[in-house]
Amino acid sequence: MTTDGHGDARLLGAYALGTLDRWESLTVEDHVASCALCREELGELLLMKERLGDLPPEALLDGPPDNGDLMLQRTLRRVRREQRVDDRRRATVLTLVAASAALVLVAGGAVVGRAVAPDPPPVAQPDPSQSADPPSGTVVASGDDPATGARATVMVTPADGWVRVNAAVTGIPQGEECRVVVVAADGTREVAGSWLVSGEDEGTNMDGSALVDPEDVSSVVVENVQGDQFVEVPI
């Protein structure tokens, strides 16, 4: 039995399709065992059957056509081309999968790194209820006047040749136009600020400044615009 004959090619094809009887199958198997070329051809036929699926029954009614060898070779070439394309596609897919996995690992590591990294220590926030220490030379003093019922707490903060003044004043009748006056040791008076009393019970907190040398400040006076004094606080 040789693979050069038309009948042998038919037998190999029929064997691959499983249409031979038991005796014919044994004959083909015995010959294929001693023919390397036939084994290769049969292997390709079996691969073709696996790739193309079962042939329709009509293809086996009258046996292979006269040009069966030519059709067989064309089919085998087609199967080989498809196999090479599939191999290239498989290699491309594997490469893309490997690259994607590497990117996921890198990105995942960065994300995990951020997720498990300890949070930075919280920045200490200043407590608004705790005021900072006043600048050196700042004087805080209080005073009241039993005759008027007014009371004032003042803070005098030294600057370069002048002073800042904060005054918290209570006990002055509503509607009075008042001012805070910084009095120097030589009797010089500088108005630090003024306001209109809108409510006796609420009191007033006023910030101002006066062009008096810090070393010369003698007292802070709260009075109305007519010069009537409500309270004086010695410094």
UniProtKB/TrEMBL annotation:
Residue ranges of every copy of the Putative zinc-finger domain listed in the record: 10-39
Any Pfam family matching the protein: zf-HC2
Low complexity: compositionally biased ranges: 126-136
Highest taxon of source: Bacteria
Region span, Disordered: 117-148
Membrane spanning residue stretches: 91-112
Keywords: Membrane, Transcription, Transcription regulation, Transmembrane, Transmembrane helix
The protein's name in its UniProt record: Anti-sigma factor family protein
The organism's taxonomic lineage, starting at the top: Bacteria, Bacillati, Actinomycetota, Actinomycetes, Streptosporangiales
